[in-house]
Amino acid sequence: MSNVKQLPIQLQKLGLMRFEQLYPQQSKQSEVVRLLALSDFAWRSLESQPDLNTWLLCKDEIQNRVIDSPFKNLNLADLDEAQCHKVLRQYREKYWLKVAFLDLCCNNPIADSINYISQLADMLINSANQWAHAQVAKVNGEPLDEQNQVMPLMVLGMGKLGGQELNYSSDIDLIFAYPRSTKTQGGRRSLDAQVFYTKVAQKLIAALNQATGDGQVFRVDMRLRPFGESGPLVMSFNAIEDYYQEQGRDWERYAMLKGRLIGTPNKYWNEFIKLLKPFVYRRYIDFSVIESLRKMKLMIAQEVRRKRLTNNIKLGAGGIREVEFIVQALQMVRGGREANLQTQSLLKALNELALNQVIDEQEASELRRNYLYLRKVEQYLQIFDDQQTQTLPDDELNQQRLNLLLEQADFSATLNTIEKVMKQVNGEFALVIGEETVPLDTCEGAFISAWDHGDVSFLKEARDEWQAPLNDFKLRLSKVNIGNRGRDTLDKLMPVLLNQLNDFNASAAAFTMVCQIFNKIISRTAYLELLYENQGALKQLVLLCCHSKWIGEHISRYPILLDELIDPAVLYKPTPLTAYKDEIRQYFLRIEHDDLELQMESLRQFKQTHQLRIAAADATGVLDVMKVSDHLTVLAEAIVDQAVNIAWHNTVKRFGMPPGTDDENKGFAVIAYGKTGGLEVGYDSDLDLVFVHNHDGSSLTNGEKPIDSRQFYLKLAQRLMHLFNTRTASGILYELDTRLRPEGASGLLAINLESFNHYQQTQAWTWEHQALVRARLILGQNDLIDRFSQIRKNILCQQRDDTVLKADVIKMREKMRDHLAKGNAEKFDLKQDVGGMADIEFITQYLVLKHANEFEQLTVYSDNVRILTDAANIGCITKEQKQQLIKAYIDYRSCYHVLRLEQHCKLHPLATFFHDNTFVAYIWSVFFALYCIVVNCISLN
Fold it and tell me: Is 645 exposed, middle or buried (0-12, 13-18, 19+ CB in 10 A)?
């Protein structure tokens, strides 16, 4: 064991001070002093359980690796939740303190330490499972198989837990399964197996995950289960097999390779392993996995750039993740044919790969050595304060600790050693997985000269209009210090840019737009290098800036979107309409539940990324205006769905859940109005939303700080507003407008659905019923969806006095026009002028409110085009009127879209839409008897 004198002075003083505070009457124990100096977690643990110092100094205990149960000599059925939680947390603290002592004071081999932690974790998880089963079985009996034997809940450990190589402060990824669907027997009431095992799983998770006064055992992550957060907590063997056969993705194959059952083996283990094996390992040599893993690594690299991670020994180039990719790629390629490669352990797999001569023994030895070195560094970083981190420290205290443990003179030497190891790993990664590269074309001398001299007259073709933006960019560049590396990259990049601008015959405006983007990234050399080394991405940037000013400014505001330009096949192919919710779910699998700041940034980045793809497809003619709106609307709905999940998690964490709710049935719904309700979301649209719920104020939540359910939903809605409207580094998410709720801005932010109904029946104005025509419930459980649909239909189908209805519609339309119309004698306001989009919307709403009492079909849809189509089919309008109104509406919207992409206002030369405008105005006059407009229309003809 090490002596305290080996510690630097600062650490020695810290260790002695802590020891004297804990053990004022004891003689100095140099090993304990060292432990206290090197770990803040150890300091807190010995404060909590000071007698453990004697236990740590017992040589037999330090050498012992036998794993005892935390519940030894305890009756699980009699152990209540508080007692169970306390026992598990004290066990975890005790044995994690032992591992800290082994690593910091005994120079324990890292392979032994991570294996020991994994075995301890297995014991904690299995113990929690057994306790949870016993608790639920007390009341409900147990599910029995055909031989009347108890069927246990199967717990599949994923990731490093599955590989028995767990981090010191890792969270744990679990998947739960059960063998058969049956009923429980022997209890006061019988339950379906699905319900029984769900209750067991919930108790198991709480036993490990819940933070109490004694801390937390593990953060439990269930997002790797089938269907992710939206999937059931437990599934039967048959359901799991069906999912992976029909819907399993490459990343799930990669994850499942690490899957390992935890607990005491039983007769169902082999059955479960056999049903998963064909999904993970193909019978043939499967080289397709290399491309999938390459793309996954590219996504990780993009995420590193997004999070601006530096000195990360896990995710950075040459980090721990690259070793895992190397080994698991080769396992997945060959594991179907070479059964000895079918192991969850990375170190065992590495040995088998060498035995099979898949990789050279020397390479395997070097990879093993480098992997264990990085794992040792990671272990130290996490032991310092029991925090899950892979980032090298930037504070002096932890730098000193790391220097000492790695036997380096100073932090510069530590960095150099780690960088050398990671460079070796990255070299091996490039050989096995490969890096996507784009050959760099040589650039003509004319473009180099034009950049070097700042003079476009060097170009073969006359480009005089480029001179002003080039001068401006050069001037701005002279005022910025970008360093030698950045300057060298820019000097290579700019001639290539000029060449590509020339190929696209770009305007001065497009050149200015690209320069505006470059101004934003000029001090971030990584982005300049990205564009130079991926000239396909630079080409897409130029192409999009030529097509659309909005896209250029969008990228300028959010430079992280440059990553999206690398793969045109993805850029110009928006996500299928049915896949947005699944994609955002996968996107959030990598994000901690409790990291609200990162969640908010990720919501914004998801929106920006997908808006760029939609706009790229829009600007280049891949999508028409109706499809663009469909995509933007469904994107908004997916983001609302994810935001509600985040807000729910945060609110439940503080106050618990209202009675009768769970993560899938929240008792909460979101009604979309306006463009969102009418499936017409634009690039810069706000969202008109109303929040409703199905609880009254008398019921309380079940948390440690219970509040009444009405207050809970108000706080949930407030949290949602915060998620959307808060301005982060990536701006706001969407502008949320909730003024269409009952009582407007003075009303409750979240209202009971029946109160919403009462307001609509007794107090709402005509314009509020007009708004309801375009309303849809975009999120909520089935009973809320059905009830809202009935309420909406009942309101819209009310009998109305046509004279009063016309007067109300005309009054509101004129009020809007007076306040909002911007047109004049030459320019036509597409939205608000007479004969514009708003007139068509009001005509459509009028038709519904007038005729729905007789024709319920008019209440089915919330978008104008389908309502007008139904109105014509029913006979409320003629087919010619329908065709002309829809044509005008689509013409206006198409033009409006183009104007938005070019960042122009919504005014357009009046003559362009003369016929559309005239016809809409005429139809308005027909319905609302405004004969003066008829006369004007006739004179125009």
Answer: buried
Nearest to 156, CA basis, from 269, 277, 324, 325: 269
pLDDT less than 70: residues of the chain? 1-5, 283-310, 432-444, 566-567, 569, 590, 901-906, 929-941
Predicted pLDDT at 586? 82
pLDDT at 938: 35
User: What angle is formed at CA 62 by the lines to CA 59 and CA 66, rounded to 5 degrees?
Assistant: 120
The helix-helix angle for 596-619 and 580-587 (nearest 10°) equals 140
| Distance, CA of 58 to CA of 696 (rounded, Å) | 60
Q: Give Cα separations from 659 to 654, 718, 941 (angstroms).
A: 15, 20, 66
∠ CA 416-419-423 to the nearest 5 degrees?
Answer: 140
3-state secondary structure 815-878: HHHHHHCCCCCCEEECCCCCCCHHHHHHHHHHHHHHHCCCCHHHHCCCCHHHHHHHHHHHCCCC
* CA-CA-CA-CA torsion sign (388, 389, 393, 394): negative
Q: What angle do CA 527, 532, 533 make, to 5 degrees?
A: 95
Q: What are 205's two structure tokens?
A: 């998770």
Other Cβ atoms within 10 Å of 595 Cβ, number: 11
What letter represents residue 618's amino acid? D
Closest Cα partner for 344 from 216, 99, 164? 164
Pairing state of beta strands 668-673 and 687-693? antiparallel
- Relative to beta strand 154-157, strand 172-178 is antiparallel
784 touches 777 (CB < 8 A): yes
H runs (alpha helix) in 504-573 = 508-521, 525-533, 535-547, 549-557, 568-571
Q: At 726, which amino acid appears?
A: T
617's enclosing H/E stretch is helix 596-619
Q: What confidence score (pLDDT) does residue 912 get?
A: 79
Determine which helix (DSSP H) or strand (DSSP E) holds 220, and give its type and residue range: strand 220-221
**Predicted pLDDT at 903:** 60
Distances in whole angstroms, Cα of residue 840 to Cα of each of 205, 642, 727, 882, 892: 54, 34, 35, 11, 10
Per-residue pLDDT of 455-505, as tens digits, reads 888 887 878 899 998 999 888 888 887 777 778 888 888 898 898 888 888
Query: For residues 673 and 681, is the Cβ–Cβ distance under 8 A?
Result: no
In DSSP notation, 248-299 reads --HHHHHHHTT-EEESS--TTHHHHHHHHHHHHS-SS--THHHHHHHHHHHH
DSSP single-letter state for residue 693: E
Considering only CA atoms, which of 630, 521, 494 is closest in space to residue 574? 630
Rounded to an integer, what distance in angstroms lies between the CA atom of residue 374 and that of residue 315? 12
Cβ density class 599-627: b for 16+ within 10 Å, e for less = bbbbbbbbbbbbbbbbbbbbbeeebebee
Give the integer Cα–Cα distance in Å for 903 and 553.
9
What is the rounded distance in angstroms from the CA atom of residue 103 to the CA atom of residue 836? 74
Say how far apart CA 328 and CA 349 lie, in whole Å. Answer: 8
**Phi, psi (5° rounding) for residue 462?**
-65, 120
For residues 272 and 239, what is the distance between their CA atoms, to the nearest angstrom?
Answer: 12
Distance CA 329, CA 315 (A): 17
Q: Three-state DSSP class for 145? A: coil
- The whole-number pLDDT of residue 933 equals 42
- Cα–Cα separations (whole angstroms), residue 709 to 563, 657, 659, 667, 723: 44, 8, 8, 10, 21
Q: How many helices (H) and strands (E) does the chain have?
A: 40, 14
Q: What is the C-alpha separation between 832 and 766, in angstroms, rounded?
A: 20
Considering all CA atoms of the chain, what is the largest pairwise distance in Å, rounded to the nearest integer? 108
Q: Give the H/E segment covering residue 143.
A: strand 141-143
- Decide: 156 and 280 in contact? Cβ < 8 Å: no
CA distance 352 to 401: 36
What's the pLDDT at 759?
95
- Residue 474: CA atoms inside 13 Å, Cβ hemisphere, count? 14
Tokens 């324990």 label which residue?
108
